[in-house]
Amino acid sequence: MRLLLRNVRIIGSGQNDKPTDILIVDGLIKSISQGIKDECDQVIDVEGACVSPGWFDLRVNFRDPGDEHKETISTGLSAAAKGGFTDILLMPSTTPPIQSKTDIEYVKSKAMGRLVTAHPSGCLSQGREGKDITEMFDMKSAGALAFTDDKRPVTDSGLMLRALQYASNVGSLVMTYSDDAGISGKGLVNEGIPATESGLRSSPAFSEELMVSRDLEICRYADARLHFGTLSTKGSIERIRDAKKQGLKVTADVCVHQLYFDDTAITGYDTNYKVKPPLRSKVDVASLKSALADGTVDAVCSDHAPQDEESKMVEFDFASYGIAGIETTFSALRTSCPELPLGRLVEVLGNGPRRVLGLKEIQIKEGSRACLTIFHPDMEHIPVRENSASLSHNNPLIGSKLRGKVIGVINNGLAEFFI
After folding, report:
1. Which residues contact 177 (CB under 8 A, 6 or more apart)?
2. Model pLDDT for residues 5-45, shown as the tens digit of each residue
């Protein structure tokens, strides 16, 4: 394959952002210069287009095995490509959960040879029940990049300590979800005025912040790496910021819908806004955006959680959690954080997640593997259900005008464009 990207600005790879051409031959970057003249199989020339190191989504659910009617690995990878991602980290919360070497091999085999690379994570505890640690070493040997119980908090402090110590010994990363279930209880939305006006059961931001504080102290004692996933409150961000200043080995991500929406969205009882953690206050959202800009937050994820209509078209109390937002992650981030420099934006979508996982960063230079995302930072578009690659459509951004559009992805010697 000989592919030419013409007049693109390179963002986030130590290059100046003046328009240039990039020639890609058989999956490798052969030349970067202006005015390349070459016989190519395909030429992409979109005025104002940018190219960056390929994006990496740190939190994705594809429902395979167990609930393939909501999403399969195949449809999920197609949706990830449309979202501009070259790599994704799959959560292990399937049915049954991903908790053995065989399970890891199953995921990798089903994703083999695709444009988007699927990296599996394994359960932290057996059955995600928070009682016994899984065989981390076996799963790591099979290809697991991290260990997590996804959206189930590890309530047993001793188990969390042992998991961090064991993961440290085998060179792996633990990803935690912060929530004190004894405080959050059966809360569905954030505690605040919108919850009071809607009459929906709520839980306080303190339920997240208390668990963040506990895990930071365990991390300090174990002297181990720990990643805090989907943080959503001002207090949580302040604790992570202080921990980083103190030299703790911690990283954090936020999901993009926590930057786009606040808790006023739930007053219409639209179950597409029922997420975990719940949408927070405007003050919390502002704090997340500041943390994104100053480096406290290392990555932005989609938290892609596809649900079928039967799981969402019910009363708010009984609806399943989640937004299927992998295809609109970039546009939602660009729209909600217009002041965020492009260099920082592609950092939290691309090499930031790679650093969290301890992976080699992608460089855009001659001789390097072509793992690239091509996008237009200002092109407006309206996502429509009919154009979605995902099997599920529980995305409240469908039908909204968004800024920024993915043009294509190049990875694994393959390429796909959406223009």
Report:
1. 148, 149, 150, 151, 152, 153, 229, 230
2. 999 999 987 767 789 999 999 999 999 999 998 889 999 99
Q: Classify strands 414-417 and 299-301 as parallel, antiparallel or unpaired.
A: unpaired
CA–CA distance, 53 with 346 (Å, rounded to integer) = 8
Environment class of residue 165 by beta-carbon count within 10 Å: exposed (0-12), middle (13-18) or buried (19+)?
Answer: middle
| CA pair distance 295, 302, nearest whole angstrom | 18
Return the minimum-mean-pLDDT range out of 14-18, 108-112, 140-144, 244-248. 14-18
Q: pTM score > 0.70 for this model? A: yes
| Residues 6 or more apart in contact with residue 184 via CB below 8 angstroms | 203, 204, 207, 208
List the catalytic residues.
303
Same CATH fold, 54-357 and 2-50+367-417?
no
Residues 332 and 404 sit within 8 Å (Cβ to Cβ): no
DSSP reduced 3-state for 157? helix
Give the position of tokens 């189930």: 152
CATH code of 54-357, in short, is: 3.20.20.140
Length of the chain: 419
Judged on CB neighbours under 10 Å (0-12, 13-18, 19+), 237 is buried
CATH for 2-50+367-417 (3.30.420.10, 3.50.50.60, 3.30.230.10, 2.30.40.10): 2.30.40.10
Q: Which string of b and e fits 45-66 if b means at least 16 CB within 10 Å?
A: ebeebbbbbbbbbbbbbbbbbe
Distances in Å between the Cα of 384 and the Cα atoms of 185, 218, 331, 388, 398 are 36, 45, 13, 7, 6
* Tokens, residue 81: 């490509």
Q: What is the pLDDT of residues 277-291, one digit of tens each?
A: 999 999 999 999 999
**Contact of 292 with 340, CB cutoff 8 Å:** yes
DSSP β-ladder status, 189-190 and 202-203: parallel
Domain boundaries, the chain: 2-50+367-417, 54-357
Q: How far is Cα 287 from Cα 268, in angstroms, rounded to an integer?
A: 25
283: tokens are 């003050």
